[in-house]
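can u pls check wat happens w/ zinc ion
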Amino acid sequence: MAAVTERPTLIRGGIVLPMEGDRVAHDPGSVLMTGETIAAVGAVVEVDAHPAAAAAEVIDAAGCAVIPGLHNGHLHSGLLRGTAESMALWEWLQNHVDPAHRALTPEIAEAASYMAYAEGLRGGTTSVLDMWRFMEGSARAAEEIGIRATLAPYTADRYDWFETLETNRRLLESHHGAADGRVRIWVGLEHMFYCSPEMCRAAAELAAEFDTGLHTHSSESIWEVQECLRQFGRRPVEEFYNRGVLGERTVVAHGVWLDDREVSLMAETGTALVHCPCSNMKLASGPARIGYYRSQGVTVGLGTDGEKENNNLDMLEEMKFASLLAKVAALDPVVGDPWDVLDMATRSGAAALGLGDATGTLTAGKDADVVTVDLSGLHFVPVLHGRDFNAPAHLVFTASARDVSDVWVRGRRLVAAGRVVSVDVSAVAARAQAAAEELFERRAALAPI
Ligand SMILES: [Zn+2]
């Protein structure tokens, strides 16, 4: 990969939404990057006056929105896209997803991560929290592609085709902090019913031992809540609390069906939540009360979930789903405000992942994780300024991954004019296609269990 250029870069004259402060916009504004860091953000004339601006390479951002990199707080690398659609959850898991886990190999898993990270990056995602398997390959993919990756293996002790806390520990030892800290290893826990209470406690201890994060799913469906009550006499988040899993290092995906006491537990323990509206609609899980959770002090990020639940990794599209699902669930068009949704994908998303000091906003001194979105397409007309300013609404309701123009992570330009430049995307796609075909052959050949 090309080294960070010594020359500063000035992204000049765009609609800059730094996503800090109260709905601040610099229009027209600029972002100046020196090395891996943001040196200045503000109005064009202000940033032009910075001592490093004169020697900078200038990127003309006229007609573009300039935003912080997006954080996809819950995804699974995978190759099941577009298969096994419109099925009951249990049938889908038992007959399609779990057999694919049994058929997975390290090579196939690595090809899936290359695809997922390249796809996400192309759409403005600069950081992912991926729950997957054989994640040495995921670390390689993230390192080469240039994206930030937080890797949380699927671990379980009630089925033998997942990772274990022992393999999670080995991954922590070998890869935590790789790529100058861009790759972080967390402890992952597959679904509560896949993991014994003892294992959950041991997972929390492992995360504490390495001073790292912990990621799991919870309260995705009503069935899960009822089953948890039946098996353990507690709701899922209460049960996780009881198992010592909640806390500031923990991020829970979904949390659709939290009651008020569970929301309090999340807030009191500092446990973050990642909302996956597309997946929650597609699997008919239901609408999470995100506005309420946030009002109670829970940090909420946004995630696409996997290719099998979405079916893409487009965080701009996910923002639209987040807003629309909030509106239809509340039967209230006032909720799901674009600024709030943008916050979940950027500032709060970074905070949920424990990256708030490094990234999530366009702030001088933070890492230069910057995205430009080209608003010149017909579908963005009209772009208005001043009194009728409408860029936040365009980003949430109109934009999709294909409108992303340029992406920098830590000052490295990884997407230029809509093309990923850090890897050969056609080779990534061809490899993933072959890996998927092999996976389906292997799955078809499995003996039933
Ligand atoms: Zn998931």
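The pocket of zinc ion is lined by residues 74, 76, 217, 253, 305-306 (CB under 6 Å).
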